[in-house]
Design brief:
Strands 2, 4, 5, 6, 9, 10 and 11 form a seven-stranded mixed sheet that branches. Strands 1-3-8-7 form a four-stranded antiparallel sheet, with no helix packed on it. By secondary structure, the chain is mainly β. Helix content is about 0%, strand content about 50%.
Length: about 130
C-alpha cells in the first residue's frame, strides 16, 4: 500500500508561481512512475505531467508545457510540480498519482487508469 499526500496549493494571482509537493509512504518510492493530474468539479481527470521512476524522462500536457516542471527526489519520497506563469484556467484540484513502472513512451502514461495510488488533492486557485 502506498499513501500519497499533496501540499503546496493555495490562492495566487495570474502570473504567479506555486510548487506542489507529493510525499509517498508505505512502499519504496523508487520504481513508481509518478504523475500529476487535475480535475475540476464534474470533469474527468486531466493529465498534467509524469516522471519516470529515476527522473530521467518527463512528459507534459500541451496546456502546461513550458510553464510547469515535474521533478522528484527519491531520497525524500517526494515528487514536485513547479508551476510558473499561472493562469486562471489552471484553477482546479491537483492530484498526484503513482503507478508501478508505467511507461512514459506510451499513451497509457496519460491515462488515470494507469495509476493505482492517488492522493487526496490540493486546491490551486488563480485569480485574474
Amino acid at each position: 500500500q502506498v499513501q500519497l499526500v499533496e501540499s503546496g496549493g493555495g490562492l495566487v494571482q495570474a502570473g504567479d508561481s506555486l510548487r506542489l509537493s507529493c510525499t509517498a509512504s508505505g512502499r519504496p518510492f523508487s520504481g513508481y512512475t509518478m504523475a500529476w493530474f487535475r480535475q475540476a468539479p464534474g470533469k474527468e481527470h486531466e493529465f498534467v505531467g509524469a516522471i519516470m521512476w529515476n527522473g530521467a524522462t518527463t512528459s507534459y500536457a500541451d496546456s502546461v508545457k513550458g510553464r510547469f516542471t515535474i521533478s522528484r527526489d527519491n531520497a525524500k519520497n517526494t515528487v514536485y510540480l513547479q508551476m510558473n506563469s499561472l493562469k486562471p484556467e489552471d484553477t482546479t484540484v491537483y492530484y498526484c498519482a503513482a503507478g508501478w513502472a508505467v511507461s512514459l513512451g506510451l499513451g497509457k502514461s496519460k491515462s488515470p487508469t494507469s495509476y493505482t495510488y492517488w492522493g487526496q488533492g490540493t486546491q490551486v486557485t488563480v485569480s485574474s
